[in-house]
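It is worth pausing here to work through a concrete case rather than discussing structure prediction in the abstract. The textbook approach is simple: state the sequence, then state the predicted structure, then interpret. We follow exactly that order.
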Amino acid sequence: MRVHQFRPTPSSRKAVSHLIYESDRQLFDWFFTEPDLIIEKLIDYGLYPGPDRIILASRGPQVIGALAYELEGAEGWIY
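Step two, the predicted structure:
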């Protein structure tokens, strides 16, 4: 397993979007209808922490986990 900084390529954005979606399907089904576009929707709503605040865990080319975090006392989310 490799832990590395998120680089927002189309494939990594899709992988992280799906991990976020899988963390709470019912909530995201209510807010969003397309799991591939969750990051774009979070950007639209001003809730995207930015690629410098997302760390990925990968096994080969497959993203298997993501950690999104904020600084200054805000919360972090593990997907």
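Step three, interpretation. The first helix runs from residue 10 to 23. The radius of gyration is 12 Å.
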